[in-house]
Specification:
The protein is mainly alpha-helical. It has eleven helices and no strands. The protein has helices at residues 17-45, 48-51, 54-76, 98-118, 120-126, 129-152, 155-190, 198-234, 247-266, 268-282, 286-318.
């Protein structure tokens, strides 16, 4: 039976100065993830041109996952939470598994960029927008289907499945590194031989972006991943009391800010959509506000003038 504990304590006691820094750092990580990743989600959804491109569908999928990770970060980063078998005030791995969705999606996006550049004719024929959406859906389905099975089994069996999943992630890491090397070589040699033009610039931009994203993602994610493996091998307990006080967990959760931030940095089209479409509506620049006020004032004067002219005409007909 699943029991609900509605009195989860905060992650820190606020008895030391470091407790305040830990609490504020986790709060900033969660907030930045929601704002940055959420901006990318809205920027792509509101822009029809971006939605029509396959690589932005992958960006949208990871950004949705990152936004949810940021929302979940308010719980696992601010309260006394430790996932595991058994866990303490955990989410049954629902929040940490969002990173699993990102791992698969980024791997699929690497394959997508490789096929788009190395085999453009077959790519344009077979890799349609529908196929990309189905692949993104598979990343969600596989991740949470496996998680559901683990949560329905006993603790011992779930721990064994978790160990096999760890081996699978090891293989995925190796594959990511090999694909990154291949994409780098393609960007350096194959695209350099193509004639200058918008298509060449687009290919170079997309390859550079996915390479940087993978490198940063692995740099922030793998330290905690290997720390857990080492702790399990030597049979020691985790050094940190909960997720909030674990610096490796902070790095792990910061990927939800770093990945969409790199999307904005590396894609001028997405950056323009986020700044103008999203933040331009939320926080319009001062000049735009002044123009809006002036426009409203002019419209008000015109309405008043039209009313005055109407009254004069009415008065003229009476006499």
């Amino acid at each position: 039976m699943v029991s609900l504990n509605l009195t989860v304590p905060l992650a820190v006691d606020f008895t030391e100065t470091a407790d305040y820094f830990i609490f504020i750092a986790n709060l900033l990580i969660a907030t930045s993830s929601v704002l940055v990743a959420g901006s990318v989600v809205l920027g792509i959804i509101w822009n029809k041109t971006l939605r029509a491109q396959n690589r932005f569908i992958f960006m949208l999928n990871t950004s949705i996952s990152d936004t949810l990770s940021g929302v979940g970060g308010y719980y696992i980063g601010l309260f006394d939470v430790q996932e595991g078998y058994p866990s303490r005030n955990g989410t049954y791995y629902i929040v940490p598994s969002l990173m699993g969705v990102n791992i698969l999606t980024i791997l699929f996006s690497q394959v997508d960029r490789f096929l788009a550049v190395a085999h453009p004719y077959a790519y344009n024929r077979f890799v349609t927008r529908t196929v990309v959406i189905e692949v993104c859906f598979f990343a969600w389905f596989y991740t949470y289907f496996m998680l559901t099975i683990q949560n329905l089994l006993t603790v011992d069996v779930a721990a064994k499945i978790r160990a096999y999943s760890t081996l699978t992630f090891q293989a995925i890491i190796v594959l990511k590194v090999l694909l990154n090397v291949k994409l780098y070589l393609i960007a350096k040699y194959q695209i350099a031989r193509e004639p200058p033009g918008p298509e060449r610039d687009s290919k170079k931009e997309s390859l550079r972006l996915i390479i940087v994203v993978v490198v940063c993602f692995l740099a922030l994610w793998t330290p905690r991943f290997y720390y857990i493996i080492v702790a399990q091998i030597i049979g020691s307990r985790y050094m940190f009391r909960n997720y909030a006080s674990d610096p490796l967990s902070m790095m792990f959760r910061f990927t939800a800010t770093c990945t969409p931030g790199l999307y904005i940095w590396g894609s001028p089209a997405l950056r323009e959509a986020v700044l103008k479409t999203v933040w331009g509506r939320v926080c319009p620049p001062p000049r735009k506000k002044a123009r809006l006020r002036l426009r409203k004032k002019v419209q008000s004067i015109r309405r008043n003038t039209a009313c005055d002219q109407g009254e004069l005409k009415t008065a003229g007909t009476m006499f």
